[in-house]
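Request: How about a record?
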Amino acid sequence: MMKRTGITAGLALGLSGCCLGTLQGLANGAGGGDPTAPPAIPGIVAAIPGAVVLGPGFQPDPTLASGTAGGPVDAQSLGPDCRGFIGAMPSHTLQVTAALPNLRLVVQSTADTTLVVRRADGTTLCNDDGDGLNPLLSAPFGPGVHQVWVGSYSASATGTPYTLAFTQLPTVTAASLGGGGVQMGGGVIAGQGPIPTQCGQTVATYGSLTG
């Protein structure tokens, strides 16, 4: 962060009714979406379309996402300690299947970026310069859906590309993100595999929740 003198690449996926129905069917079993029906594959859950889905022992580690930083919204609207400018919608949705005691979020970008996270329990985490001019957050994440914004420190610097790493490894830093990991366009749980839909699209990935 430059000293003062005085978070969007939300991964959109247009799902038709048939695709969404198929995804729900895979999660709930062949019962037409009946939540009481046994799952079609034990231990498998359907990801929120476009979400990064992580469980204990997730692989690859780091799991990477990307986008462009910033937006028109002052990050302080989400918390008094938040800095920068973010998009009106989250940059990424993080779906955690079981508690992660220490998940690290590391951003790498050529611009001065910020990070804002609204956890499933409603608490907000923010960071500006945790790793040079790159933000870094390390915190426990419980099961549920969490929202992540990658912002730009300056309102005039929005639109800069970034890489966001989700990791449990202390060795992952902004400088190390030039290699390793897998670029994600959908969700991932430990032990991956595609969930095809009747529409011929892959809307998520799945795997063993126990890794």
In short: The CA atoms of residues 76 and 82 lie 5 Å apart. The chain has one helix and 14 strands.
